[in-house]
Specification:
Blueprint lengths: L4 H6 L9 H21 L2 H9 L3 H4 L1 H23 L2 H17 L1 H7 L2 H28 L6 H9 L2 H16 L8 H10 L1 H35 L15 H9 L2 H32 L3 H25 L5 H21 L3 H14 L2 H10 L6 H10 L3 H15 L9 H4 L2 H18 L3
Helix pairs in contact: 2-8, 2-10, 3-12, 5-6, 5-8, 5-19, 5-20, 6-8, 6-12, 7-8, 7-12, 8-9, 8-19, 10-15, 11-12, 14-15, 14-17, 14-18, 14-19, 14-20, 14-22, 15-17, 16-17, 16-18, 16-22
Length: 437
């Protein structure tokens, strides 16, 4: 059966060939980094129990994870500008695999800082992959069908995310020791040998999926090296120096505010998907594994809402839809703060419906009309993922210390004022853009 003409056109190369095979390979990476993102969120709660550390200390997992994204975004953009997209993918996969494999010595050492280093190395690789794969997909065919290709590729990211959540629920959280943190604290004093044996077993439970993931990523690296990927070179205009491009971007108020808003969006997304477990444990005495099940429901709602909101964009301006979604997210966050019991937990789950289209909408608003500057500008938006490094530790600190409201509001509920503030910022950005676009 012949391929429809329109499909040939979407993946056609200038020489008359097809980029379809290369597109399929690169699209697999979208699922691969989605898996890493969402197997990691529940680890904040897992490390808190295993290592008997505070919410602030355990949330440093997110600081290391998203800090790697932030640290490597600009170097990755400069690398693919100097070399090509294929080389960027090779470096990204190598760093990704190395970070995963570092979980084994970290587990043997039973040192939390070693896990943070592993997460940082891993996400330096993920930053390379995201910074490289998005423009690579855009370049795999005619410019007029670029957005369609990228939207299709991004649809595989939530599939990886759901797989990561399921692995975390079934193969990590369910298999941790049954002792509570209070019991482990007592055991640490009266039976240190038994305590350290349990800690080692739990750390091995955490490390095994990452070891397997590292081996899978190495297989992908071998596959990409062996495959004949198109040698598409990133645009490297001699007329536009990096310094001049950076000055133009910094002088573009819409772009700067978009990066700012994106940082708050990523922060709120990671906070909601990370601390839903602590909320369910604290407010409903739920197990970590059962609480993670609500995260999976939230992701399913997130994916469904993305399709609905994409359809709504045919009738609603992106800036207006962004503002509406931010108002909705803020409303449900207030529900999580002020409504006790299951309804508060359902409110947190419902927030995901409002977050579904925020990242690509802000991304599109930021890069509108950029032209060649978009290549480096996209790295700034990846840099904004650093919001996911800063916000979760702040929320963890609030959970540890926010006793200001006494019995009226528990510390975990008070901590959700921080996600609410993020939605206020995003709503303001949507309104600001609505007056100018």
């Amino acid at each position: 059966m012949s391929t429809p003409k329109s499909e040939k056109h979407i993946f056609s190369s200038p020489s008359g060939g097809s980029y379809l095979f290369a597109f399929i390979l690169v699209t697999s990476l979208f699922a691969l980094w989605g898996f890493a993102n969402d197997i990691t969120n529940p680890m904040v709660a897992a490390f808190k129990k295993i290592l008997l550390i505070t919410n602030f200390e355990s949330s440093l997992v997110q600081f290391a994870f998203y800090g790697g994204y932030c640290f490597m975004a600009i170097p990755a953009a400069l690398f693919i500008r100097r070399f090509n997209y294929k080389s960027g993918i090779f470096v990204g996969l190598a760093l990704y695999a190395a970070g995963c494999l570092l979980f084994i010595p970290a587990g043997n050492a039973m040192v939390f800082e070693a896990f943070l280093v592993a997460y940082f190395v891993m996400t330096c690789g993920l930053s390379f992959l995201e910074t490289t794969s998005n423009p690579y997909v855009l370049a795999m065919g005619p410019e007029e069908s670029a957005t369609r290709r990228l939207n299709f590729a991004q649809a595989f990211n939530p599939m990886g995310s759901i797989a990561g959540m399921l692995i975390a629920k079934e193969f990590i959280l369910k298999r941790l020791s049954e002792e509570t943190e209070e019991q482990l604290q007592v055991m640490k004093g009266v039976d240190p040998e038994g305590f350290f044996a349990i800690r080692q077993a739990d750390l091995n439970t955490v490390g095994t999926p990452y070891l397997i993931l590292g081996l899978v990523v190495l297989c992908f690296l071998v596959l990409f090296i062996a495959a004949r990927l198109p040698n598409i070179v990133s645009d490297n205009s001699e007329g536009n120096s990096i310094g001049r491009t950076v000055r133009c971007l910094l002088g573009n108020r819409r772009y700067v505010l978009a990066v700012f808003a994106q940082a708050f969006y990523v922060g709120v997304q990671i906070m909601v998907w990370t601390f839903i477990i602590q909320y369910a444990e604290s407010e409903l005495s739920m197990s970590k594994s059962d609480a993670q099940g609500y995260n999976i429901v939230a992701m399913a709602i997130f994916v469904s809402s993305r399709f609905i909101c994409t359809y709504l964009l045919k009738y609603i301006r992106p800036s207006l839809l962004l503002m509406i979604l931010a108002f909705g997210g803020g409303f449900f966050t207030l529900g999580a703060i002020f409504i006790k019991g299951p309804v508060g937990l359902y409110s947190i789950v419902a927030i995901s419906a409002c977050m579904s289209l925020m990242f690509p909408t802000i991304y599109g608003i930021a890069l509108k009309g950029m032209g060649e500057e978009a290549k480096l500008a996209s790295a700034g938006l990846i840099l904004a993922i650093g919001g996911g490094a800063v916000m979760p530790p702040l929320q963890g600190w609030l959970i540890d210390r926010a006793t200001w409201f006494g019995e009226f509001l528990s510390p975990v509920r008070v901590s959700f004022f921080l996600p609410f503030l993020c939605f206020v910022v995003i709503a303001w950005f949507g309104r600001w853009c609505g007056k100018r676009l």
